[in-house]
Amino acid sequence: MGTEEMSKPWKMVLFCSLTIVTTANIVCMNLSRTVQPGTDKSSLYYSSTSVFCAELTKIALSTSLLMFELRSFSRLKDVLRNEILMQWRETIKLSVPAIVYVIQNNLSFFALGNLDPATYQVTYQLKLLTTALVMRVLLGKILSNKQWGALFVLLIGVCLVEVEKIVPVASDVSAHAHATGLKAQRGEDRESSRALESANASFAIISGIMATIGMTFCSAFAGVYFEKMVRSQPNKNRSNGLSELSLLWIKNIQLYIFSCVSALGACWLNDGANIAQNGFFHGYNTLTVVVVLIGSAGGTATALMLKYLDNIYKNFASSMSLVLASICSFLLTGQLYGPKFFLGSFLVCFSLFIYQSASTTAAAKSRTTSDQAQISPKGSTSLPIYTPNNITKA
Ligand code: C5P
Hints:
Number of domains: 1
Helix content: over 70%
Structural class: mainly alpha
Order of helices and strands: HHHHHHHHHHHHH
Distance between the termini: 17 Å
Bound molecules: cytidine-5'-monophosphate
């Protein structure tokens, strides 16, 4: 038997939970990185330390969930020893996505420090494209024309939002250059320092977008890798009667062990000198703790999503959180968005809808093809078609 089926209502609950947790994560992370009036950037916590704390909390959460499944502490100890220490070759395999996720998490702090939550979220939707590319390369998944069309609509949506965000800054710079020429004699220094600020703002937006695109590749690769691992059927002799959920929490713990090690390395590399001077928990407050807790809850929801739905659904959930994050951003800061932003956001959501319906059609076709293959004579040379449920066979 393959992956245990989850009922549709539970899938909806899982989908909504991931959407809400992702939105909360973006909003809280952004708030926690905002410099308060009267303070400066040096008062902020080091983002690398919060990533490490989140990974550590994820181990605690997954171990508690495993304990809940096993309902016995001595069994938990046995399972951890047998499945993680004795099966060290399996454990080592999880080091690959762990390292990639830590890079992604650290990039996310950089990106959010330079972009507003909505632009960050919309740009990050490019992961639908990179996920499709990685699936093509690693799993041989072939997209239909409709699916590629949906991805192009997504790109247009993303560009519309970005144009609206970037153009005002760029025109500020040129307007500013003009103004500087006219008022050269008066306040030249003040004007040129403002021009420098505008140029810095443009640079911040572009570097934030570059970091977010980097994250989309990390997300795609690690997500596809983890999905493949948790969907691979456990050997009945090897699973020791463990439930599929127990096996998922074990895979999570294996993943997070490496994530912790890489996150600690990132703390040392990025903020080592500052941590030595000001302490590991410098700048921590209640909001930082909330960011850590929400981050670990999001990880657990993501693991469930990859096990019982797939990467596309996971991406779809984070696209929905784009809309929620925009509403939150408006409620919190009063920041208004123009028509291009709304049109762009609409196209992003609409493209995801088209992609979703095309995936359903592709899955149905794939089932028909495999049924026909079973009854057709040998020698059929049709290409393998990926569906969420045959990923491990692809
Ligand atoms: O943006 P994306 O959906 O790719 O982010 C996935 C996030 O989920 C990563 O930050 C990673 O740390 C987390 N994750 C997790 N546990 C898993 C799989 C992913 O915490 N089993």
